[in-house]
Amino acid sequence: MTATAVNEAELVGVQQLTFAKALTLAMSDAMAADTSVMVFGEDVGTLGGVFRVTDGLKTRFGEERCFDTPLAESGIVGMAVGMAINGMRPVVELQFDAFAFPGFEQIVSHVAKMGNRTRGNIRLPLVIRIPYAGGIGGVEHHCDSSEGYYVHTPGLTVLTPSSVEDAYILLRDAIASPDPVVFMEPKKLYFSKATVDLDALRARYTPAAERGGANAAPSSIGHAAVIREGTDATLIAYGPSVAPALAAAETAATEGRSLQVLDVRSLVPFDDETICAAVRSTGRVVVIAEAPGFASMASEIAARIQERCFHSLAAPVLRVTGFDIPYPAPKLEQHYLPGVDRILDAVDKLQWEES
């Protein structure tokens, strides 16, 4: 057994992990539990990924189950489709958000449509991992928030974690899914840390807790979560925007205002029930996302709330998003990304004087 494998085996109980390490462990545990799970993509093997998320997987499982591919995203996704059709569970990495666009035709034309095209006779249990969004001082092609393209494509599940614990849970659930999942990983969170109970997380995926069994843990797919209680207004965010939403709520609390924070987690399928219940409990909403606001996921969330919760709203639904421009140069990104000041400015506009 290699040193890397020994270290992974010793990661049990309560541990402080980075977001990236939680993703590594999710893949490692899934590969150990199911020999059909494979990981491949650009630089994921020997290098361990640009952000070291796949570090150690090639050493532990061999190059037949974790391997590098040519720099050809369309080929990577096309190969994953063929493998999934033939009984494998591929987990592929497309390195950076905008690097996925050369493989986008495969995703839209085949990954998303194969189940419908074959009337459910062919399912594609594959995961497409995409590091996305800003906050790392990257240039264009390295900081796109491209989730809107995928959520607009019927046939895809789209997930994005915002915490270390959810990084593990959502990726394990994505790998277990019988249908294709686009898994959006906020790059700026890779080296964030949190203390988690690995034994409790892994217990969700033991044989005794298999899907459909009496002791099955609920899947994270299709489930949002209220991660901070509040009574005055609800901040709805996902992925990289959850942290500034929580920071805004902390600041608001020092000013005597109670803000609830909800993490969408599962962009598709969307959890209308949890989100509408949160909205109705406060009557005021701000939706926060890094992507440009026009025709966006933030737009869809606002529209769904307006349709379903109109009579519970004390003010119009407001959005705090990236601007409708190409991603800016590194020195300007702090002005582009939704931050505490912009979020609280929106909260101040929720017609408090008319309540």
Task: Describe the protein's topology.
Blueprint: H1 3-9, E1 14-18, H2 19-33, E2 37-41, H3 57-61, E3 66-68, H4 73-85, E4 89-93, H5 104-111, H6 114-117, E5 127-132, H7 147-151, E6 157-159, H8 164-176, E7 181-186, E8 193-197, H9 198-203, E9 225-228, E10 233-237, H10 242-254, E11 259-263, E12 266-268, H11 272-282, E13 285-292, H12 297-309, E14 318-322, H13 333-336, H14 340-348
Parallel strand pairs: 2-3, 2-4, 4-5, 5-7, 6-7, 10-11, 10-13, 13-14
Antiparallel strand pairs: 1-8, 6-12, 9-11
Helix pairs in contact: 2-8, 4-5, 10-14, 11-12
Jot down its keywords.
single chain; alpha/beta; 355 residues
Structure description:
β13 (285-292), α12 (297-309) and β14 (318-322) form a beta-alpha-beta unit. The radius of gyration is 20 Å and the shape is globular. With 355 residues, the protein is an alpha/beta fold. α2 (19-33) runs parallel beside α8 (164-176), α4 runs parallel beside α5 and α10 crosses α14 (340-348). 35% of the residues lie in helices and 19% in strands. The model is unreliable at 1-6 (pLDDT under 50). The strands form 3 sheets. Strands 3-2-4-5-7-6-12 form a 7-stranded mixed β-sheet, with helices on both faces. A 5-stranded mixed β-sheet has the order 9-11-10-13-14, with helices on both faces.
